[in-house]
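Workshop exercise sheet. Pairs work together: one partner reads the sequence aloud, the other fills in the structure field after running the prediction. Swap roles for the next sheet.
Pair: D.N. / O.F.
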Amino acid sequence: MYLIGGPHRHKSEAQILSERLVAAGERLVTDAEVLHEILHRYTAIGRREAIGPAFQLVLDLADDVLAIEKMDVLRAGEIAQNPATLSTLL
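Structure field:
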């Protein structure tokens, strides 16, 4: 299972990796935050017409969209506030 989404500086490398994963039959997942970021970003840059196609691309590629729950965000906050924990995760 691989998490997809978010902006990529290496678009071509990400596309190649995505194509390989799909060809290998790997399960691809994303989370609702990715869709939220697409909405926020395209609205901010005045590209509202691109929201639908971007959503569709993510939804076509992903096998599942995971929910982000309150406990997920609280745990992420705990990790981010503890530099020692964060450095061991990276």
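Discussion prompt: Residues 24 and 79 are 33 Å apart (CA to CA). What would you look at next?
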